[in-house]
Every structure is written in C-alpha cells, then in structure tokens.
Prior knowledge:
340 residues, mainly alpha, 79% helix
Amino acid sequence: KLNPESIDAQVAYADLCLEVGKPVEAIKAIKQQLPDESIGDNKRVLDKLSAAYLAAEEYDNAIRAAMICSDKFGTSSDNLWILAQANQANNNLPETIKALRQLVRLDPMHEEGILLLANLLSMTGVPEDALATLEKAVSAHENSLAIQQERCKLIWRLHGVHKVIPILKNLVARHPDSSEISTMLAEAMEQAGDLSGAESIATAGLKKNPAITELNAIMGRIQYRAGQLDRAISYLSEAIRQSPGTLQNYLDLANVYLDRREPLQALRVYQSAIRAIPNDPQAYLEAAKILKDCRDYIGAETMLRKAAELSPEDVNIRRQLGAIIALNLVHHAKEVGSPS
C-alpha cells in the first residue's frame, strides 16, 4: 500500500494516473496528499503537477507550476514544452513561440518542438523564419522525415516547385519506402509539367500501396490531361472512395464527365460531394450551373441559396443568386400569363 506521506510514492501514483488518462486524480494525488512545502521544494513534484494540469486542460495552472519550477530549479526542456503547449491552448501565440524558441535552443533534438515552432512561424506570417528553423534542424535530424517534409513544403512555397524537386528526388533515393515523400515528389513533378515523371513515381507508389489517395488523385488528373477519360474516372473514383472528404477530387471527376458531355453524371458527382462535405459552397455552385444549363431554374436557385447561406459575404454567389431569382420570376410570370 502506498504511503501518502511519501513524495516518491505520490509522484509514482500521479504518474500512473496520467498514464491511464486520469489527470484529475494525478493532481489530487499531489495537492491533497503532500504539504505545500513538499510541492514547492521538489522539482519532480512540480514537473508532474504541471504535466497533470496540462493533461487536465487547466492551462493557467500548468503555466504557473511550470514557471515556478523554472524559477526555482532552472529552465528545462520539459518545462518549456509544457509552457509552449499550455500557451498554445490559451491562444497566446507570442508566449508559445517564445517558449518554443527557448526549447529548441536548449534541446536541438526536440523534434516536436521544432515542428510546432516552424508551423506557428509559418502561420503567423514569417515563413522565412520557419524555413530557417527547419534548415538548422536538418543536420541534427537527418533521418527525420517529418522535418524533411515540412522543410520541402516551405521551400516549395517560398522558392517554387523547381527548387524543391531535386531535394525531393534525393530524399526519395535515401528513403524509397516513404510514401509521403514519394507522393510529394509526384505532386511537384505534376505541377512542374513533368507528367511522365509524375506518372512514373505515382505508378511505382501505387504498386507498393494502392490505398494512397493522393497518388490515385494524381494519376486521375494525369490521365485526364492525357485524354484518357475512362482511366481518369477510374483513378478519381478510387481516390473519392478512399477519402470521401476531399472536395477537389469530386470537382476533378465532375470535370471529366463534363468533358465527356455527361452533365447528369457530373451532377451526381456534385450531389455526392454535397452529401460528403455539406458545409462547402463550391459543390452547390457547380451543381447550380448544371441545373441552370438543364433549365431546372428552381433547382439551381435552391443550390445557390444554400451556397449563399454557407458563404454570405461572397459577392459572386449573391450576384448569381439574384440572376437566377429574376429568371425564375420571369418564367413564373410567363406560366401564369399563358393560356391554359
């Protein structure tokens, strides 16, 4: 039986509570069973308490405990990581970034911290700093595909697709079993216009794993551009089956059917997209175009009203909706005025 006066016993019990997902119990184990002076004068206890507060989503308490620990016992990577996560949860990005910068200086091997810092720097409008962070980390994390992948994304964004392709080719040669890197290379080659290269990479990737949605989508787009519409439909349909929540694949598949002069099939694709992704206005807009072309003006108005509801600030949607309402009024007036 655990001795409630034993600091080691209470820390061990709190640790067990955290492992089984009971952070409130972990907090109780420390706060209720140990005197305040034992908590404030013991680094292990403060570390565990701040981790428990973080897991319990008591972010202000997690920050306080981590800062007390840092003040009394010096800054550690564990404290900084807790500070970063708690401040991020509180939407305090300046303090999050400050903690992460300290963390990666103190512990250059902290991969999660490096990736989060780069992501936040990129989100807050300083992608050059994000890239510099990743470039500095690459040598220490040579085999980290996550860091390499994020670095490639930023190089692509900042310096263009042609700059990133040779880097991706080198990574694929070093990591031939990484589907993520191969997929990124195929996407880059497709965007650069090297369709045969992209097809070669995608085909090889799908032989290893036919369930890679992005590669099926890439193959579908390549076949479409090559005029192989049946094959395009096959690949894009498979991509949709594998990942029903990706709107672009529906839009690409509908375009194939429109090129085949099969608007009703395209409409069915848009309707499937609406069922799968009901809160995106794009599929409603595209469906409205087909319904209007098929002279189903009431159906087109219904679709445009839904699009306007989802995107009320979109002037283009409001303009299209106004036009179709006017068209419906004209048709209704003609019907009322025509002899029975």
